[in-house]
Structures are given as structure tokens and as C-alpha cells.
Write a structure and sequence with these properties.
This protein is of the alpha+beta class. The protein folds into two domains: 11-28 and 48-156, no CATH class; 167-241 and 250-314, 2-Layer Sandwich (Muramoyl-pentapeptide Carboxypeptidase, domain 2). It has helices spanning 10-26, 61-78, 83-105, 118-135, 169-187, 206-222, 238-241, 265-273, 281-292; strands at residues 142-146, 154-158, 228-236, 253-260, 297-303, 307-314. The strands form two sheets. Strands 3-4-6-5 form a four-stranded antiparallel sheet. A two-stranded antiparallel sheet has the order 1-2.
Length: 315
């Protein structure tokens, strides 16, 4: 006798229905005769990470706005999409993804529109980066954009020549976002100061650089971005400690950033599963700080059920 299949619960059915509606809203029309992909496995949207069910800190309003606004203005700076079209795409994706997110978190509540609520910030920052990642491959070189001050209410926008390739846009976006956040943390944002450290001189030892980087992470944690945010496992480059080193790379080495209970925990995992740009605002900011110190930096991200680890290499 074949084993009896368990009956789906009401929540299972609601999640499946929401996933199908989300898929229908995002899948291009005319892909096949019935509007469905040929491979039935492709019918489902990318698998979502488990919801965050433990308590997280509330973010401060101005800080959360700084993060989201910096990403929005970075898109505007890169000139690859009219901002009215970007806002429409953001709204559509948000509408398609929000109900499945709420159902996944049920019975926990999410305060819609409240950026200080970590569960809402997690979702809305995910939606922002998912939209950006979806629009970048379709980036335009030239377009007309609404302009309230312009004579015909439109202006012609052209992308910078060095960013003509859409493949260059993800790194450029992360760079522009990080620089805007770091500037806000150093020089203030909407009347609020954060006290981020100034850049250090090039060739400053790695231990000193990471000490200041920890101050930046402390600002993130103090404003609710994570329960804790710490730099660990700082290892200067071996070549710099050898007798052959002549002072060329004192900043080189590796370290790890550990975020405990971050406000972007679900979003980073969800975006990584889609191979999209992660909403890792702290990493973008640290990279901007490291660049300002004359360092070249790269990092990789690994998520767990309760935190995020970033593995950094400085050269």
C-alpha cells in the first residue's frame, strides 16, 4: 500500500496561491502558448529563505531613510533608467512579493510603511534591491525623463561613457550607494550627526583601519541595523610581515564581519538565492570607507539562521 500523502494545510494553500500570483505578475507574457513555462519546475518563484522569527532591534527612522535613500539616489546617478519607470517597477514588484512575505511570517505582524520595524525594513530593502537587479540588465543608454522645472517637463538623460556596459552597473551601484551612506554618517543626514571616522592615510596598518571600521559598524548597531556588529579574525598579509616587505602593503590582509540579528537577514538570503545585488548596506559603506583609505577591498557573504558573516580581503 502506498503511503498516504499528508493533506495540505490552509497556510500551505495560501502560500502556494500567493506564490502563483507573484509568479503571474512577474513572468513575461507570451512566453509560451498557455502563458506557462515549458519546464513546470520553473513555474515557481525562487525558493525563499525561512522567515526571521526572533526579535530584532528597531531601526532609527533617519538612519533607515539614509540607507534606502542612498540606494535610490545611486540609481538616479547612474542614469540607466528613468526614475518614474523605476518607481513603477519598484511598486509592481513590491505588490507581487509582499503578500507571500506576510503569509510566510504569519502569525507575526509587520508594520507596513514603518522603516523602523525590522521585518518591514527587511522586506522593503529586499524589494528595492530586487528591482534594481532586475532593471540593470535592461539599462538604457539614453532616455527622456520627467523634469518638473524643465520647459517641456522632460529632459534628455545620457549615461556616462565609462558605464556604457550594463555589466559595469552592479559594482558602480554598490560603490555609489556606499559612498552616499558613508558621507551621511560622516557629515550628517537630515540634521542628524552620526560621528563616523574620517579616512586614514594610505598604507595605514590593517589593525588601525579595522579599528575605525569597527566604529562604523558600531553606528550601524546603535541605530538598530543589527543586535551586534563586530570585526573579528583580523589577519595582516604574511607578505607584509616578511623580510621582503618594504612598506608597500601594511593595510593588506583579511578580516571577518559578523552581524548578529541584522535587519536585512531575510533580504540578503532572498537576494542571494536570486543572484541579485544584496541589500548589504553595511558592506557597501565599509567598502567606501576602505577605498577612502586607499585600500582595494572585496568580500563574500554567508548567511545563517541568525546572522550574516562577511569575509573581507584587503589589498
Amino acid at each position: 500500500m502506498e503511503p498516504e500523502m499528508p493533506c495540505p494545510t490552509r497556510r500551505d494553500i495560501m502560500l502556494l496561491s500567493a506564490a502563483l500570483l507573484s509568479y503571474q505578475a512577474s513572468y513575461p507574457k507570451g512566453s509560451c502558448a498557455a502563458g506557462l513555462p515549458g519546464n513546470f519546475a520553473d513555474f515557481f518563484s525562487p525558493s525563499q529563505p525561512e522567515p526571521v522569527l526572533f526579535p530584532r532591534k528597531s531601526l532609527t527612522q533617519v538612519f533607515a531613510v539614509l540607507l534606502m535613500r542612498s540606494a535610490y539616489e545611486a540609481v538616479d546617478d547612474l542614469n540607466f533608467i528613468p526614475m518614474d519607470r523605476f518607481q513603477a517597477a519598484f511598486w509592481k514588484l513590491r505588490q507581487a512579493e509582499y503578500e507571500p512575505y506576510l503569509l510566510q511570517r504569519s502569525p507575526l505582524r509587520t508594520k507596513q510603511g514603518d522603516l523602523t520595524d525590522p521585518s518591514y525594513f527587511d522586506f522593503i530593502s529586499f524589494a528595492q534591491l530586487a528591482t534594481i537587479s532586475r532593471e540593470i540588465p535592461k539599462g538604457q543608454q539614453e532616455f527622456e525623463e520627467f523634469c518638473e522645472e524643465c520647459e517641456n517637463r522632460t529632459k534628455l538623460v545620457r549615461r556616462e561613457p565609462e558605464l556604457r556596459s550594463n555589466a559595469a552597473l552592479p559594482a558602480a551601484f554598490e560603490r555609489a550607494t556606499g559612498e552616499r551612506i558613508y558621507d551621511g554618517l560622516r557629515n550628517g543626514f537630515r540634521g542628524q550627526g552620526f560621528g563616523a571616522p574620517a579616512p586614514l592615510e594610505p598604507r595605514t596598518p590593517l589593525q588601525d583601519i579595522t579599528r575605525n571600521a569597527q566604529q562604523i559598524l558600531d553606528i550601524f548597531a546603535a541605530n538598530g541595523y543589527a543586535l551586534k556588529a563586530t570585526i573579528q579574525d583580523v589577519v595582516p598579509s604574511r607578505s607584509c610581515a616578511s623580510t621582503e616587505w618594504h612598506g608597500a602593503c601594511p593595510s593588506a590582509g583579511t578580516f571577518r564581519v559578523h552581524l548578529e540579528g541584522p535587519a536585512n537577514l531575510w533580504g540578503v538570503a532572498a537576494l542571494k538565492s536570486r543572484r541579485a545585488i544584496a541589500n548589504a548596506y553595511d558592506a557597501m559603506t565599509l567598502e567606501a570607507y576602505l577605498r577612502s583609505c586607499g585600500c582595494s577591498a572585496s568580500y563574500s557573504i554567508k548567511c545563517s539562521d541568525t546572522g550574516i558573516d562577511e569575509y573581507w580581503t584587503i589589498s
